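Fold this sequence, please.
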Amino acid sequence: MATPKKGRSASAQSKPGRSLALILIAIAALTGGMFASGHTTPRLGIDLAGGTSITLRAVAEPGQENAINKTNMDTAVEIMERRVNGLGVSESEVQTQGDKNIIVNIPKGTNSKEARDQVGTTAKLYFRPVLQREAAPGETAPTPSANPSGSSSPSPSGSGKDKAEDPAASGSPSPSASATSQGRAVTDALKADATPSASGTSKASGSPSPSGSTGAPSGALEKQYAALDCSDPKQRADAGKAAKTDQPTVACGQDGTVWSKFLLGPVDVDGTEIKKAQASLDTQGAGGWQVDMTFNSAGTKKFAATTAKLAQQTTPQNEFAIVLDDEVVSHPFVQTAISGGNAQISGNFTQEEAKSLANMLSYGALPLSFEEDSVTTVTAALGGEQLEAGLIAGAIGLALVVIYLLVYYRGLSFIAILSLLVSAALTYTLMSLLGPAIGFALNLPAVCGAIVAIGITADSFIVYFERVRDEIREGRSLRPAVERAWPRARRTILVSDFVSFLAAAVLFIVTVGKVQGFAFTLGLTTLLDVVVVFLFTKPLLTLMARRPFFANGHKWSGLDPKSLGAQPPLRRTRRPSAPIETKEA
């Protein structure tokens, strides 16, 4: 039985090149993927690349102070993260601070300004019926036309108004090219057989709907609407502020570059009742961009009742306003009742407009209102200085480790330094690829984690080298010493790395924000340490043990038996046997 075991051991020792080839192929593949993806450097966090840090303070509505609780704050953080990440700023950070504050860190980038605008829009989202509004530039009043159900339904005010329809319909009406950027309209796609027409005067106006669902504005509110000038930023900010959901109100909305005023009825549908909203390309109608909406069960019933009533009204009472942060972001018209819970807002959208409206519909219904307490901007120059300081600290730490290895291990330091370089290459390529893959951003704590990992990786080499030296001290030659030392060193390395990885995992779970960057980097480099030691350091030392410089114990190899104080192997000596007495013949 001893002979086969020895043969397997010799076979395993004779093929360390396979492990070396495997890890070199992995490095080549990761490097190729890094260049092929175009992401040749890791993404930098706000403290290194510069960006904006926003502090938002939660404000409860009067009489609802209990709304500021952990559940609502966590929900607000989740919605803000989705809103910002939906714009492509995946390295942003959103976290709570204390009981009432939320910190939003937006790194400098193409979409950072747009993301800040979206995060700042923190009020609830509502659907309110339009009672009266100013006409958009170039808009004409509609002429009523018969709808498919036989009741009088107006065409949109202005040719080619955008409209929302049921996605289950076989076809959708095609709006003309002269639609304004506002006034999106809603119709049931199952009944959307009529194509909008355009005629009439240039201003859409009308009295409040006689339907009790929209509510009647008071005389004071009508006077406020008449006096409202939405071109004035102060009046625009005060319009509809602290409006009650069950009362009519006034609001402003931007139609292209022009601000218009609106007189709105009570809230019919809450934004929290929107289950999903997304931008898509219309493949059945005019081929433009549209916004698909899906309501939950409660929202489906409310939306069906609202659209059924609005479809019977004349312009602009057949429109409902989508109000976010007391501002009308869109006011689509209703052509037919929509009872299926699915609707499409279609028309002359650009891709950016459709995505922006979909984001507002999907993520606009925050459980609390928030006020912007402070905005701090970190310049790229300051971030560059911090990155430079971190790199200098890392270089100093690496240099000290290399000096120690050279002085103490001499020739063995060659293997250790190569292993450190392999670990550095794997870490860099993975960080570069994880940026676009999972939104990983390298911040200052993450740099600290990488520096700490230098010591962890060097510690694994030292454990193995000392085990080999112990075997040599016991009188064994280098090649058997390398193989006998490996099982014991391997066990110690695995236990040590497991403890480090467990600490990193716990730290990542229980912390938030930048500290997670430290924990993530520490855990990643700990896993890479195991890979490097098993697939590179051990096979390379096995190969080097066959070279005369190491095998013969050169004094600069770090494995000289004399300098290590090796003792010759103990041998058994026979005791002198007692003389055998013989009898004389």
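The first helix runs from residue 2 to 13. The CA atoms of residues 18 and 539 lie 9 Å apart.
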